[in-house]
Amino acid sequence: MAMASLSLVIGVIVVPLVPLKSRGLNELKSPSDLLDFGEFSDCIDFGSGAGSPLLHVFNPAFDYVPPKLVNLFIPDRGGHNPSYMYRLIAVYDSADDLVLQRKPAS
């Protein structure tokens, strides 16, 4: 009786959930939400074959603020400093939903 060999290959791919660059955290919306094409049609260079724009519009749906610049959170129950937010989360949310990460000691 001959035995058959079995080869098994397992692969794991690790992908970050959030981009490391702050610009990647912004969801971009259409510039037409801000500008009417008829009003700004003179900002397009029709002399070039492609009609390249002379005006570039960056319209983020949300603004990203780096954590080091946040000094105060103002929810519906008053203003709190960032260190107190852990306490508010513990009071209002279930302990199963709470994920705290401690920084390694230096």
How would the blueprint of this fold be written?
Blueprint: H1 85-92
Explain this structure.
The chain is mostly loops. Among the domains are: 22-63, no CATH class; 65-94, no CATH class. Helix content is 8%, strand content 0%. It has one helix at 85-92. The protein is flat, with a radius of gyration of 26 Å. The relative contact order is 0.11. The model has no long low-confidence stretch (mean pLDDT 69).
Task: Describe this protein with a few key phrases.
1 helix, single chain, 106 residues, little secondary structure
Topology pattern, helix = H, strand = E: H
The number of helices is 1
State Rg.
26 Å
Straight-line distance between termini: 62 Å
The helical percent reads: under 10%
Structural class determined from secondary elements: little secondary structure
Q: State the total count of DSSP E strands.
A: 0
Largest sheet: none
What would you call the shape?
Answer: flat
Strand content: under 5%
Mean pLDDT: 69
Poorly predicted runs = none
Subcellular location: Cytoplasm, Cytosol
GO molecular function: guanyl-nucleotide exchange factor activity; transferase activity; translation initiation factor activity
Organism: Actinidia rufa
Keywords: Cytoplasm, Initiation factor, Protein biosynthesis, Signal, Transferase
